[in-house]
Design a protein that fits this description.
The chain is mainly beta and about 325 residues long. It folds into 2 domains: about 90 residues, Immunoglobulin-like; about 210 residues, no CATH class. The protein is built from 2 helices and 27 strands. The two termini are about 45 Å apart.
Length: about 325
């Protein structure tokens, strides 16, 4: 992933400077930053309706220049209605989805029931990534329930294990920044949990299940960045060595409907890795929304195939 924002900023120059000449905007989801189609807008003058219209689905929407108005509202059935003064119209309109309360997701295994944190979608093996000794990427998982969850086990899927690998599972406390121009970062803090050293070998199954300590719980609204850390690799003789990049242990990635993947980026020009962890899917959604006025293809949005199985604390 190239961390060169010059091209993106250049692509957005006309859009972002458009309000200087005419009022043009793009509707974007406040949380995911993806393009929203078929948004209705209404123009008012002195609290009287003067015009109604719908946003374009293949370009930025330009408000009619022949209409005199002092305020505007935006609406769609699954989003909160938003309104503000004409002078406050920006080139990007952020809309918030209406809160929908769903039954908790429970997966049953015999008599045992679990709440699953994470997604279970189709694997995209071409998107698999090697695990590293440093924190280069991870998945952000949050307890959205209003009570503590007992963390029972973690399951992840490997795409490649060519050499016996010593690793750890880490949960880091984090602070998320507010998304801005398609950028949302996290600042990893102290470790909330770190496992003992574990091992996987080439003969092991690709589905790896790790039982978590009985006293490990996750408070309500607590976000943790889950990441896997390589400790050492061993050759056939059991000696520690450093394999070449293409032979390192890889984790499967899967299609994603959310924005849980945080990763450092790599600049092809400078050959440097960024120091910050950025929300990759938010960045992709914003780029497509503001440059191409559409949502990216589903195959582009991925996340690690990592799940936490939890239960409500008794």
């Amino acid at each position: 992933m190239e961390e060169n924002l010059d091209g993106k900023l250049l692509c957005l120059l006309l859009l972002l400077s458009a309000p200087l000449f005419s009022q043009v905007f793009v509707p974007i989801d406040k949380d995911t930053h993806e393009f929203i189609e078929d948004v209705n807008y209404t123009l008012y003058n002195n609290e009287k309706l003067v015009f109604t219209g719908a946003t374009l689905n293949d370009a930025a929407t330009k408000l009619p220049s022949d209409k005199v108005f002092d305020s505007i509202s935006f609406s769609r059935v699954d989003y909160e209605t938003l309104g503000f003064a004409k002078s406050s119209i920006d080139s990007v309109i952020y809309l918030s989805k209406k809160v929908i309360y769903l039954d908790e997701l429970v997966v049953s295994s015999g008599t045992e029931k679990h709440i699953v944190l994470g997604e279970t979608n189709r694997f995209v093996n071409s998107q698999s990534r090697p695990v590293n000794k440093e924190l280069n990427w991870g998945i952000l998982l949050v307890n959205t329930f209003q009570e503590n969850l007992q963390l029972d086990k973690m399951i992840f899927h490997t795409a490649q294990v060519k050499h016996k690998t010593a690793y750890k599972i880490n949960f880091s406390e984090v602070r998320e920044t507010t998304p801005s121009i398609g950028h949302q970062f996290i600042d990893p803090g102290k470790l909330y949990y770190s496992s003992d050293i574990l091992y996987i070998s080439p003969k092991d199954k690709s589905r790896v299940e790790v039982v978590l300590p009985a006293d490990l719980s996750l408070p309500p609204n607590k976000p943790v960045l889950v990441w896997i850390q390589v400790i050492e690799y061993y050759d056939k003789e059991g000696q520690v060595f450093d394999p070449v990049e293409k032979e390192r242990t890889k984790i499967k990635f899967q299609l994603s409907n959310r924005s849980d993947l945080y990763s450092k980026t790599y600049n092809i020009s400078t050959k440097q890795t960024s120091s910050n962890l950025i929300n990759i899917n938010v960045m992709i959604n914003y780029d497509f929304a503001t440059a191409f006025f559409k949502k990216p293809h589903k195959s582009i949005l991925v996340t690690p195939a990592i799940l936490l199985y939890a239960s409500k604390k008794k």
